[in-house]
TrEMBL record:
It comes from the Bacteria. It is a multi-pass membrane protein. Residues 1-20 are annotated as: Disordered. Residues 5-68 form the Cation-transporting P-type ATPase N-terminal domain. SUPFAM superfamilies: Calcium ATPase, transduction domain A, Calcium ATPase, transmembrane domain M, HAD-like. This is Cation-translocating P-type ATPase. SMART domains: Cation_ATPase_N. The keyword RNA-binding does not apply. Pfam families: Cation_ATPase_C (PF00689), Cation_ATPase_N (PF00690), E1-E2_ATPase (PF00122), Hydrolase (PF00702). It comes from Roseateles aquae. PANTHER family: CALCIUM-TRANSPORTING ATPASE. InterPro entries: ATPase_P-typ_cation-transptr_C, ATPase_P-typ_cation-transptr_N, ATPase_P-typ_cyto_dom_N, ATPase_P-typ_P_site, ATPase_P-typ_TM_dom_sf, ATPase_P-typ_transduc_dom_A_sf, ATPase_P-type_domA, HAD-like_sf. The keyword S-adenosyl-L-methionine does not apply. Keywords: ATP-binding, Membrane, Nucleotide-binding, Translocase, Transmembrane, Transmembrane helix.
Amino acid sequence: MSSDADSSRAPPEGLSSATAHQALQAHGANELPQGRQVGAWQLLLQVLREPMLLLLLACGAVYLMIGARHEALMLLFFVVVVIALSYVQQRRSSRSLAALRELSSPRAQVLRDGRWQALPSRELVPGDLVQIAEGGRVPADLQLLGTASVSLDESMLTGESVAVHKSAPAQVFSGTLVTAGLCQARVMATGPNSALGRIGASLQALPDAPTPIERETARVVRRVASIGLALAALLTLTHGLANGDWLHGLLAGLTLAMAILPEELPVVLTLFFSLGAWRLARERVLVRQLPAVEMLGAASVLCVDKTGTLTVNQMQLQRLWSEQAAYRRDQATALPDSLHELLEYAVLASHRQAFDPMEQALRGAAQDWLAGTEHLHADWQLVEDYPLSPALLAMSRVWRSPDQRSLLIAAKGAPEAIFDLCHLDATRIETLNQQVSLLAADGLRVLGVARAQFAAADEALPPIQHDFDFEFLGLVALADPVRADVPEAIAACRAAGLRVMMITGDHPATALAIARQIGLASEPGALISGSELALLDDAALRARLPGLSICCRVQPEQKLRIVQALRASGEVVAMTGDGVNDAPALKAADIGVAMGSRGSEVAREAADLVLLGDDFGSLLTALRYGRRIQLNLRKAIVFVLAVHVPIVGLSLLPVLLGWPMLLMPVHILFLQLIIDPACSAIFEREPLEPAAMRAGPRKLDAKLFDAALLRRGLLQGGGLLLLLLAGYALTRHWSGSDAVARSFCFALLVLSVIGLLMANRLWQPGGFWRGLASNAALRWMALGTLLMLAAALGLPGLRQLFAFAALPTQAWPALAAGAALAAAGFALSKRVGSR
Ligand SMILES: Nc1ncnc2c1ncn2[C@@H]1O[C@H](COP(=O)(O)OP(=O)(O)OP(=O)(O)O)[C@@H](O)[C@H]1O
Ligand SMILES: [Cu+]
């Protein structure tokens, strides 16, 4: 980490943690005033505003008016239970969200107690020594130190998006973006005292806009709720007009409203997303946009950048080649003298404090092979530097040596760019290209190296690299090994129905070689180069997309174009990236994925997911979770739907048929107490069914509440309603007692709800009982429910509250038979309703 160029000077010192701690007390944390945070009270308020509670309170009031004090008290008890339940659920989500926020807070490289460490930027204090590097945000107002320089994008302070070049002792400002370079700096001002703090700007993330799924759910809930209210009003009217008993009519209406209200859906949605994000964080995947995980389940194309994602991005210089000599690291130890100059100029064309792994590799090789020769020039002075540009993939650096009058220029870059700079003739280019292809075919990244002299040392330097008179020196080839887990992960992605596309700035031959190593399609039509791509208009590009798996020599802007073209042709695009230039494409993709430790801050800010461990395999984990959340959501929805049909039916039909009221608020509440926790706790925990991974991505326009889902839910619920009505009518006829019939019907309903849970837990056929063994939440749930049911049927006090009667012995076998029938029906419905 320390600078190699400054070794002659005493290294600047950092702070000790004790001093830093004191300074932190004095100056305050290095952060801007935060947006509002959700405290416990606000959560409670949110809970209290829930419509379910309002309905309960209204019911309580009606009970008081008709003088049923016990019932009113019991409702009050339920109010407390419901509040406690939703409070616990909401806290669980907001806790996991807070933990995520903590994980995603920015970090800075700081020298503390003589050791470089990554600390939260929040803990920086004036006087700290930090290091900033390409792709990072400046964590505070800093003064640059040493000889290195950086390029900055200060647009967020100035509105100017032209990069500015700065070197010591210039100041750089908090929140600006380092687009190139690596430099040490001293912290001058933090938090509200920084330039950013003074203008009151904030880097707060965008407010979370509701996603399609959230909007769809909100729409469904609204629609169902208004239908419910209308029905409830209608019921109250019918009842009131028919019997003249308006209070009981109101009670029936409120009961129906409670039965219909799909209040668990939004809860299920937030809880599934936030718990899913929390689970993923434990797998070292940070979710910055919650719905992105579910979206990942729908991804159909995965665009990956080669360097750093598919490969480890640790370069090693493997071969050097000039027209006179060649060297392979694996076949010889010493570098022949005739290649010394080639390596010397490759290093001169690099930064002294190298950020780029290629340059680090060149520097490392030079230290191994050129140490003690006259080819390392610590005393040369940098005069000018021509950076790499998309138009010319080559960079040059101009040097002044103490013992020469003319300036020396070293250039390195993509071979074709260097050939261009050297103005080589066509035949020589052709032979050289053969050599490049030979090196690249082994998966090596090839760079050309050239040198020039500029005699008139006091004249102004030319504006572009082409104006120098370059002489070609040779080629260097670097290896960047493929990550060990990549071939397997790629195969798994493809098995899951995802198309994988490699996007790289590298040479076609290198890209092809890597594609073969990782098992991507590599036939001729599968590859397109950036220059070819530039000739296509949007329609032609879209036509070219099918079957494409490698894009090489693409420029950063072209990544954006590829993503947009893919999306325009109906694909759901997940895209990985790590560089400063990748941010627009990451934003444009449906799911942007950034590498956590190696990727740039900017890429992380633009991404929806961050792979904290930098391993490609965890993307696959995220994909599995995406499918899992999506499938479990669907299961929960089918369950909620199926369970509401009989509840609504039993509240509505008796009134319409002129029977005595069957379900009362207390029954609905009892059921609610099973249903709410059941959907969130039991379905959320379900592991992914293997078939869902093979089934391919969900269609983008597929709704969460699609026809298959509705059909299955209505089938299960409708069947159950018929069974319950039949059971009710039969027991009533046979026992002559409303209370016995109600007890029977309710007990059957509760047993069937447990059956519905077990049936919808696993959608693949079979496995009805397996649920009890593998899902502890389900086991407890079932046990608790049975105990509650037994209490309501068995304890005289409760029996009265529930308006039950003791079930005669003959009813028990009938109950068991009914439950078995329901279970068989649910098992059958899985075959009918499958997609
Ligand atoms: N520091 C450098 N010095 C000289 N040439 C460079 C340097 N960096 C990149 N190049 C040239 O530019 C080409 C494209 O580089 P670029 O950075 O766009 O690819 P990349 O983003 O590293 O690759 P990938 O897209 O696979 O991640 C390289 O293949 C190389 O020829
Ligand atoms: Cu409900």
